[in-house]
Structure formats: C-alpha cells, structure tokens
Amino acid sequence: xxxxxxxxxxxxxxxxxxxxKGPAHEPYINHPIEVSRxxxxxxxxxxxxxxCAAVLHDVIEDCGATRDEIAACFNEMIADIVLEVSxxxxxxxxxxKARQIETAPHLSNGAxxxxxxxxxxxxxxxxxxxxxxxxxxxILRYVDWAExxxxxxxAVSSGLSDRFDAIARDVRAWHTEKEExxx
Length: 183
Known about the structure:
The chain is mainly alpha-helical and 183 residues long. Helix content is 68%, strand content 0%. Helix 2 (30-42) packs antiparallel against helix 3 and helix 3 crosses helix 8 (109-128). It comes from Thalassospira permensis NBRC 106175.
C-alpha cells in the first residue's frame, strides 16, 4: 500500500498543472487514479507494482519523467511497464496512434492491463466529459481506434474487456441518438 500511495503522490505532483480536455476541466490526476481503480475492481489480485504503473502511466509522455527516474523512485518492474505504455511524443500524432496498435500484442501482461484500463477510462469519458470541440465522427473514430488497440490486450481481463464493450456500445448509441435528434 505504501508504494501505491507513493505513486499517487508522484503522479499528482507531476500532473499538478494539467487538466482533462472535457468541459469540466477535471484535474488530470483523476484519470490515472481511475485507471488503477478500474484494474483493482476487475482484477482484485493484481500486483501492487501494476497498480503503481497504472497511476504513473502518463508521467513519461506527458510530464517529462524518465524511465530511470521512475526506477530509482519505485523499481524496475514499474518503470518498465510505464515505459511500455508511453507514447514517444517526438513522433507525429498519427504515427503514435498507429504504434499503439502495432505494439499492443507485444506488451507484458501488466502493461496490457494498464493499456486496457486506460482505454476503458478514456472511452468512458466520451459519455461523461467529451473533449471540447470533438464532433460525433471524431468520437466514434476514437472508439474504433481504442478497440483496435485493446484487441490483443483483452485476454488479460475479461472484466475490463466487458466494461470496454459496454461503454463503447453506450458511446456509439448515445452519439447516434444525438445525431438522429439533430443535437
């Protein structure tokens, strides 16, 4: 438990100036905490180091933390998972998105859990706090892309897979209803 709380503290400090893209402008830290919570709800026997990696999953790509810094503060296993799920921000956006699909089958099981829970959280946000300026087409493209990313990760958690499917179905239905209603 101490290591998990240490990861929450580290991530909260790293993300302190960041907000989510939705109209609520939630503190960004809510997202990595949600990712860890989703894992523990669906896979209650998950090792603490995976939960820590879930909390830290965006600190390399979004905050400039390094793998070595995470290893020094936590351990090599946590650092490796965080690195596995981190996008290379030096690459163009479309290439980063394509790489998530390409690398997903090769992730460790811990990284697959983090990736799967991250996409459950992000797709869920399309219902509760859709990014400002996103239209129906962009939202549905995101859901389709997320589905492609998690396809090879599903085997690590039927619970997270089922949640993803239910949320994706709700997002598609809700945005289709909105379009048909002219909203």
